[in-house]
Here is the input.
Amino acid sequence: MDRPTTPDRTPLSELVTVVPVFLAPLFWWLAVRAYRAQRAGSATASAGRARTARRLFRFAILDTVIGALLLAARRYGQAAPLRKVASGEAPTSPFAPLFGFDCGELSAAQLWLTLWPVVVGCGVVGLLWAHAKWRQPERAARWGVVVVPLALGPLVGVLFSHRACGAFGGWSMGVGLLGVLAQGAVMLALGGLVRWFARAELRILVGPAVASQPTPGGGLLMALSSVARVALILAAFWSLCPGLHELRETGIELTLAGEHGLSGRLLVLATAVLVAPIAEELLFRGVLLPGLAQHMKPSFALVASASVFALFHIPSHGIAAVLPGVLGLAFGWARLRTGGLRVPIALHVANNLLVTLLTWTGGSGA
Here is the structure.
């Protein structure tokens, strides 16, 4: 029996699927109209119309680039099928050993894998802090202490998971999550102290410098729109870069492998969906980003903080740490847009919840 064939997709038909998402041609049309109105209007009205035209042009260019990436991904990209990391009968307890690893050997490898990105990331933060102190010593005296929770959090997490590995007789999802929980607790406690200690330096409102109206509602709407764009960009690169498909037997794949019953899923939700996002947002967007934004342009501070954020995700994501880095740009942009942490935390929690649900669905074969 012949397999049914599907009609060939043309660039025009692919473009039709992209246009309803972001309406890039509409943005171009609105941008041109705003530019013409700015040229023909009075001096008072021209300033506002010029800002509107610039923003519309940026969205038009961005959506055009996204459309081109999606067209390339659908024409030349490769699908990335979900694969289960753990094989055999799925354990019903989150602390049932999954693999026959020796805890000592695994912890040594995990310690090295975790520490070198942390050392590099803390070194970058230290250099940026030293540069800020050199330029404006009176305003950069304390926020750089953020390197302490950034360094101690991962180290405590690895050591705690090592002790838990020995206590429970082997590596398991629960052991890995206990390490994440310990890391998050250290980051929350020490990060809260740093934020309080440097509160006078972190009071600069970055939002109004980026947004036309520093309103949380408008910031949430724009942030959600930006995260949708980021998701499409990541999907395109994921399809165009086969190297990102390679699953490694470390980090997230080991932690979320298989089914672990209700207790395991509750542990994942409490740790990876609540504690970790709040702790990371407190440090990276609550202290590091506003600290850097005092001494450089907000856009530069955004890129620098997102790069450090990506470095800290190398142990769990490997080469795919570029994906959290891009998401860090979206979370940081939401921080700059709203001037607070509520929207970045909400977006981070929503992202981790979606990834977790998709992992469970893919792992169960549903």
Q: What stands out?
A: The CA atoms of residues 269 and 353 lie 7 Å apart. The chain has 14 helices and no strands. The radius of gyration is 23 Å. Residues 103-363 form one domain.
